[in-house]
């Protein structure tokens, strides 16, 4: 079984997921071609960057629209009218529905009445759709994730100044192992939290696996820690309970 393990030592965001997937071997052109099935205007660019001396890939989603607020129904229409595979559509809508439920809880409203602000913008839609489609293109069958490093402090959004992690992120990460090292920055975005909380099968230590590739997706900020999301891709080993003494070098 082909699996992916996300190491969230600097949190997680949608663009970092895209960068990690591309860095691990996903073709940027293949991802672009898949996302063109959404029939919305966008472009993707990638470049190599260094974060605290460690290289990774930064993927940038380029869109021309201004600040647009969308409801879940608008996003559902974009996804359902696309030519994406049925499973990909289903998983994308699972992510957006979970995000809408978190926002509805925070703002004391209904799922269909939720106004997506930053997440309703086309770049965030591409981030989420690209994350789901990219994992499918790589043939990932199961997803694992480390405990998630969350930031602290405050950030400014459409509603004003709010504490970190953002309230929607807190809702999305309920029941998931998290920790903080006091980094004063938004390490986990609603987009990243929605994707990983929806798609991940298990949170904890890396499973017993035969590693085939790995990649690092870069965030925007320069932090005291490497602002990178690492993904390890490989085959899940079925004999994970065997005594590691059987393996030379252990």
Automatic annotation (TrEMBL):
InterPro entries assigned: Ni_insertion
Keyword annotations from UniProtKB, A to Z: Lyase, Nickel
One MF annotation (Gene Ontology) recorded for this entry: lyase activity
Identification of the protein by name: Nickel pincer cofactor biosynthesis protein LarC
Organism the protein comes from: Clostridium luticellarii
């Amino acid at each position: 079984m082909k699996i992916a393990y996300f190491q969230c030592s600097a949190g997680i965001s949608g663009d970092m997921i895209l960068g990690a997937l591309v860095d691990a071997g996903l073709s940027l052109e293949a991802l672009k071609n898949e996302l063109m099935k959404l029939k919305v205007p966008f472009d993707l660019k990638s470049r190599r960057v260094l974060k605290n001396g460690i290289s990774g890939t930064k993927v940038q989603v380029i869109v021309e629209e201004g600040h647009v607020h969308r409801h879940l129904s608008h996003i559902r229409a974009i996804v359902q009218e696309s030519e994406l595979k049925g499973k990909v559509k289903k998983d994308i809508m699972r992510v957006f529905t979970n995000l809408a439920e978190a926002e509805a809880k925070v703002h004391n409203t209904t799922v269909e009445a939720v106004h997506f602000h930053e997440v309703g913008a086309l770049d965030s839609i591409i981030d989420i759709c690209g994350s789901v489609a990219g994992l499918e293109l790589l043939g990932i069958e199961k997803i694992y994730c480390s405990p998630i490093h969350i930031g602290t402090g405050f950030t400014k959004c459409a509603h004003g100044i709010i504490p970190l992690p953002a309230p929607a992120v807190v809702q999305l990460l309920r029941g998931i192992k998290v920790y903080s090292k006091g980094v004063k920055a938004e390490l986990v975005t609603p987009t990243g939290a929605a994707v990983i909380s929806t798609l991940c099968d298990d949170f904890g230590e890396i499973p017993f696996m035969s590693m085939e590739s790995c990649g690092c997706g870069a965030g925007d900020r320069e932090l005291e820690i490497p602002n990178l999301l690492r993904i390890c891709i490989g085959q899940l080993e079925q004999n994970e309970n065997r005594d590691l003494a059987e393996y030379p070098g252990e």
